[in-house]
Each structure stands twice: as structure tokens, then as C-alpha cells.
Amino acid sequence: MFMVIPSLTAFSEENFVVGNFSPDVFMHYTIKIMHHLTPEQLAELRESLLRMREKLIKQAGEKIRDPSDVTFEGGDEIDRANIETGRYLSLQRIKTRELKLLRKIDYALMKMEHGTYGVCESCGALIPFERLKARPVTTMCINCKELEEEGEHE
Q1: What backbone torsions phi and psi does residue 126 show, to the nearest 5 degrees?
Q2: What's the rounded Cα separation, in Å, for the pair 152 and 154?
């Protein structure tokens, strides 16, 4: 689905509309929004995301392969089954949490490739490098994130 755009002059680095664009409009537009991050900053953020991804995959593999936290000394079959069930549930929680972060990392890397990284998905504001450096998987500027969190607490 493509969005009809009356004029490209309606878009600027400060004014952004999230939507589906035809490839020629999308390319023209994304070239403009990548100006707020230098190539060095993008390289630093990409490297950070790749390190996060590698570390996450390594830790997940170690937790799955390392049964050292499971001991079956004493106890009967029911105790052992309870321990094993607890370990399984713990691994499931880890898997779910890590999978969610892994998807966010891959999404951020994909946005970098498409030239849309660092743009708030809620309001279209440019996300400052400092915020991206602190949280490279973020998709919202600090104002939109605070509004979202306020809404969750109500």
C-alpha cells in the first residue's frame, strides 16, 4: 500500500510523517533524514548493536548448554521434577526476553540500512545521538517515550 503525497516540499528534517511510501519518494525522503547522524556516529551505533547481538546470542547459548545450576542431590522424583520444571520455566522467560531484544536489535539494524534509523516512530522527531548511544534499539524520542510510560501507569 502506498501513501499519496501531494508534495515533497511538505517534508523536512523537522517535519516527518510515518507511512508507506513508494520507493522513489522513500529514497528521496530518507536521504534527508540521515543528516542528523554522522557516518562515524552511525558506525559506532551499528558496532554497538552488533556487539549487543553477539553477546545476547552467546549468553543464551551458554544458559541453555550449562546445566551446572541444576543439582539432583537427594530428594525423590517429584523434587527432581519440580527443579527441572523451574529450570524450564526460567529458560522460557530468558528465551522470551532475549528474543524480544534480539528482534529490536535486528529492527534497528534494518532501519539503518533503509536510512530511517534515529527517527521517532511516534512523532517523527529526530532522536539525538546521545539517546541512541544510551539505548541503540530505541524507536521513540524521549518525549514520546515519557508520554507512553505515563499512559501505562494510568
Answers
A1: -75, 130
A2: 6
Q: Residue 70, by phi and psi: left (phi above 0), alpha (psi -120 to 50) or beta?
A: beta
Are the CB atoms for 102 and 53 separated by under 8 Å?
yes
Q: Tell me the pTM.
A: 0.65
DSSP β-bridge partners for residue 119: 126
Angle between helices 77-114 and 39-65 (to 10 degrees): 160
Q: Provide the residue type at 33 as one letter.
A: I
In tens, the pLDDT along 98-112 reads 889 999 999 999 999
Place of cell 562515524: 40
- Give the pLDDT of residue 3: 34
Using CA atoms, how far apart are residues 147 and 43, in angstroms rounded to an integer? 30
Closest CA to 51 of 92, 119, 105: 105
**Residue 128 reports pLDDT greater than 50:** yes
